[in-house]
């Protein structure tokens, strides 16, 4: 069942076409404005009106708004200021757009008016990052190879030092980075290269500049087809660059949106090939999901490989000594070492340097960037155990004094850490389920009405929903979802908007009525003119809000990140103190020699304790617990119709004692149901229910016939 978004305010929320249930304090008079604000609260509109002579416009970032009542309060406070001509507040964008007379009002007066109303305000010197002109863009990048909070801090530090980067936020749980940058100073490729130079994997996902499209190409069967496709792309004007993945048959195209649109690009390729090629737009969220699955499967393969190699080592050490025949084979001398030593050395070397190579790579990457992470601890602990065992074998071969080896310690530690990594990757995949469900709310295709120059409809064609352009006239049949936000230009029908408003009752839509993409048309056919498409639609802005909330850092997480940054050096220092303490106290006779392992010494005994300190203290949970909790909470909330702004709102929610709603209709299904049935006569309850069912069936037949 599609999630229903009510206006429960732990979050920013739009008001619906029908008045949704929300926290009390909303003025009833605000109802007249709600129909207008539903779409406006999600979008950054291009202001086309000409300012009156001498007037000035500013945009103000307003913090602390939680519902439509808050936005109305801000608007009211601004309009009461002498000299303010117009004031409009976008709830979900946390923004106020104010037109005023600079002779009577100053910017500071506007800020003070908002703060006096109980909110925080900041005058913006430039528009929002998602629709900024002057080259400022918001880009999203996937970042691979991060293992803990220290990696996140390292990547964020690298990005923030780049010229032209204004803001960078990295989320460990989603392996995503969001970067606000000036495209005139730095490009997407420069950001990707900077991340990769730091030792991590990076790829560009999408940006607020609609200049990239990823297409799946069907109809390629030979090298000639690839050459034909390349020729078609080269001949299209506005195509800046293209990359063809010959394995996955994916085509990545960078183009100039002012010269060619994504639909014209697809039409040009399909038309130029005479229908040989069929192209489908790849949704970036779907591609990210496939990457999550690939990471989980890769981690599972590593874990299985390590497990199958570690089990024989464990059996050689623990089980085989109890089986005389096998133990005699292991004690057979082959060169300078016993057969059992050769086997353990070979198996553990594969685990340590082949399966466990990722830990050395990640540890080297962290040290190169001047930081430490959990991979440093794993590499230190397992390497200490492995190289001590190798030295013990070589020392025994030279001197004849054989010390115990601890190969199985290294192998089993890597196996258990890989198991934890696999479970972690599964958890990270599940936390993005809310985003996947939201993406699935939008239809995959749309019916476009083709018109001639005179405006007469001459045909229909089915197109990918991601190729819809503003101004397109779309045909929406009964029972289907609206593919984009728009305005009804023909027809009349009822639309189920509970996805956004939470209102179960269908809303009548006639000519000039606004409609929301992803909502369901129930009865009649509609012709809808698309006004907002792609990232500008209400549904996309909801997805953006959930995504931003999942990337936000709770205040407690900032403390956890700080602890994680100094955790590894502290653990290494404690491990060294443990080594020195047990060794010195042993040499001084503070504990009996019976505690030592067979053929062991005080150094080996102390070394095992120090290795335990290093390995057990890996800060995986410290760096992952908080972001995972935030992601799960925001995802569960989104599935149940509650948008949560981020970790800060979750932390403050625990202090809430009472929640009061001014309307309960949106909190229920809006349908009458039988909850209990009681019989107050001597009639049997089963007989009574039978009579009720018979009456219901009789009424149904009378209604039909």
Overview of this structure, please?
- The chain has 705 residues and is an alpha+beta fold.
- Helices cover 46% and strands 18% of the residues.
- The strands form 6 sheets. A 6-stranded antiparallel β-sheet has the order 16-15-17-23-18-21, with no helix packed on it. It has a 4-stranded antiparallel β-sheet with strand order 2-3-1-4. Strands 6-7-5-8 form a 4-stranded antiparallel β-sheet.
- The protein is globular.
Descriptive terms for the model:
18% strand, copper, 6-stranded antiparallel sheet, globular, alpha+beta, single chain, 705 residues
Give the topology.
Blueprint: H1 31-40, E1 56-63, H2 68-79, E2 84-90, E3 95-100, H3 107-116, E4 120-124, E5 136-144, H4 149-160, E6 165-171, E7 176-182, H5 188-197, E8 201-207, E9 212-218, H6 223-235, E10 239-245, E11 250-255, H7 262-272, E12 278-281, H8 284-318, H9 324-330, E13 333-334, E14 337-338, H10 339-355, H11 357-368, H12 374-399, H13 407-431, H14 433-441, E15 445-451, E16 457-464, E17 473-476, E18 485-491, E19 493-496, H15 498-501, E20 507-509, E21 514-515, E22 520-521, E23 526-532, H16 538-551, H17 555-587, H18 602-616, H19 620-639, H20 647-653, H21 685-704
Helix pairs in contact: 8-10, 8-13, 10-12, 10-13, 11-12, 12-13, 12-18, 13-19, 14-16, 14-19, 16-19, 17-18, 17-19
């Amino acid at each position: 069942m599609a999630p229903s978004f009510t206006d429960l305010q732990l979050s920013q929320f739009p008001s619906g076409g029908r008045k949704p249930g929300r926290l009390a304090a909303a003025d009833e008079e605000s109802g007249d404005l709600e129909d207008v604000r539903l779409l406006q609260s999600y979008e950054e509109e291009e202001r086309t009106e000409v300012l009156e002579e001498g007037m000035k416009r500013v945009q103000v970032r307003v913090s602390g708004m939680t519902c439509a009542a808050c936005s109305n309060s801000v608007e009211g406070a601004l309009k009461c200021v002498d000299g303010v001509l117009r004031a409009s507040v976008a709830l979900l964008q946390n923004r106020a757009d104010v037109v005023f007379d600079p002779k009577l009002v100053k910017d500071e007066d506007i800020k003070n008016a908002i703060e006096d109303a109980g909110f925080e305000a900041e005058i913006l010197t430039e528009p929002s990052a998602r629709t900024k002109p002057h080259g400022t863009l918001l880009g999203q990048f996937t970042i691979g190879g991060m293992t803990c909070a220290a990696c996140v801090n390292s990547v964020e530090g690298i990005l923030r030092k780049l010229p032209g980067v204004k803001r960078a936020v990295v989320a460990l749980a989603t392996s995503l980075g969001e970067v606000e940058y000036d495209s005139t100073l730095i490009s997407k490729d420069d950001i990707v290269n900077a991340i990769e130079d730091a030792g991590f994997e990076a790829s560009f996902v999408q940006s607020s500049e609609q200049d990239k499209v990823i297409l799946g190409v069907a109809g390629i069967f030979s090298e000639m087809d690839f050459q034909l496709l390349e020729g078609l792309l080269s001949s299209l004007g506005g195509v800046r660059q293209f990359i063809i993945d010959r394995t996955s048959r994916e085509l990545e195209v960078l183009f100039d949106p002012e010269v060619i649109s994504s639909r014209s690009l697809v039409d040009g390729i399909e038309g130029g090939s005479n229908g040989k090629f069929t192209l489908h737009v790849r949704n970036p969220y779907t591609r990210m999901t496939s990457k999550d699955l690939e990471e989980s499967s890769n981690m599972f393969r590593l874990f299985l490989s390590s497990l199958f190699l570690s089990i024989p080592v464990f059996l050689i050490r623990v089980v085989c000594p109890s089986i005389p025949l096998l133990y005699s084979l292991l004690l057979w001398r082959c060169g300078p070492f016993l057969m059992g030593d050769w086997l353990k050395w070979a198996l553990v070397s594969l685990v340590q340097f082949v399966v466990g190579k990722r830990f050395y790579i990640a540890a080297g990457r962290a040290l190169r960037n001047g930081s430490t992470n959990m991979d440093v601890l794993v590499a230190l602990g397992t390497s200490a155990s492995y190289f001590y065992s190798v030295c013990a074998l070589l020392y025994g071969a030279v001197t004849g004094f054989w010390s115990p080896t601890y190969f199985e310690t290294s192998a089993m530690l890597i196996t258990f850490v890989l198991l934890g990594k696999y479970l972690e990757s599964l958890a990270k995949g599940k936390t993005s389920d809310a985003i996947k469900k939201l993406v699935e709310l939008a239809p995959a295709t749309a019916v476009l009405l083709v018109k001639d120059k005179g405006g007469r409809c001459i045909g229909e064609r089915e197109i990918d929903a991601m190729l819809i352009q503003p101004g397109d006239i779309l045909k929406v049949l009964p029972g289907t979802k609206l593919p984009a936000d728009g305005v009804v230009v023909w027809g009349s029908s009822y639309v189920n908007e509970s996805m956004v408003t939470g209102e179960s009752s269908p809303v009548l839509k006639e000519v000039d009525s606004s409609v929301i993409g992803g909502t369901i048309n129930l009865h009649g056919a509609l012709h809808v003119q698309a006004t907002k498409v792609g990232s500008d639609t209400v549904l996309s802005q909801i997805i953006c809000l959930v995504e931003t909330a999942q990337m936000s850092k709770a205040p407690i997480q900032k403390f956890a990140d700080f602890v994680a940054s100094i955790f590894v050096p502290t653990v290494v220092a404690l491990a060294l103190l443990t080594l020195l303490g047990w060794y010195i106290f042993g040499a001084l006779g503070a504990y009996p020699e019976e505690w030592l392992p067979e053929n062991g010494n005080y150094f080996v005994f102390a070394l095992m304790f120090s290795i335990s300190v290093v390995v057990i203290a890996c800060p995986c949970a410290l760096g992952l617990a908080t972001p995972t909790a935030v992601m799960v909470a925001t995802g569960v909330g989104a599935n149940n119709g509650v948008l949560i702004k981020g970790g800060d709102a979750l932390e403050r929610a625990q202090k809430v004692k009472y929640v009061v709603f001014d309307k309960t209709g949106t909190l229920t299904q809006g349908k009458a149901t039988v909850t209990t049935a009681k019989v107050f006569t001597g009639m049997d309850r089963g007989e009574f229910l039978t009579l009720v069912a018979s009456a219901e069936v009789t009424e149904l037949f009378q209604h039909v016939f």
